[in-house]
Amino acid sequence: MTASGGQGVWNTYSTTYTTGSNQFSLDLVLTVISNWAVGNDFGIDDITFSGTVNLRDTVQLNVTPLPVVDLGPDQTVCAGDVVTLDATLPGATYLWDNGSTAATRNVSAAGNYSVTVTANGCSNSDAVNINYTPLPVVNLGPDVTLCAGEQVVLNAATAGATCGITEARTLQGAYPQQAPIVWPLP
Fold this sequence. Notes:
Layout: E1 75-78, E2 83-86, E3 93-96, E4 104-107, E5 111-119, E6 122-133, E7 162-168, E8 179-185
Parallel strand pairs: 1-6
Antiparallel strand pairs: 2-4, 3-5, 5-6, 7-8
């Protein structure tokens, strides 16, 4: 930096210097060269160094997707049915709400069931609600013995149920023949 000024006058000089890549220091030399016949005396007041440090780095960011966990929709099943919940993913670990660490879980009671699946360092969860409907009670009355040509009316009416009929291939007894079997539909 070269500056010019008058004798006995305070002058303000500023400059900006940008360092090169990987340069962390700067040597600065002040030299007074005077054309006046009074020597090379000078005064320095309030030397301020300020800097703005701009650092830059590059990083590769890999985003690992969350594991897809799907226990399916909430279910209502018949009492006595066993529901298998399956959270299987290749290379994953599992933690069910009951502490189990298996990929699948068999349930036979109503409740809300959840699992957390961890794969490639990422975790995701799902839950499903299982409800059980009691089996309908069907009472066709006492056993009946019929003679050939006789008829009987069977009433399988159950509140809230529909009925279907299927035919048996044989009936036990002296005269095997096809006869209907009635059952309630859930």
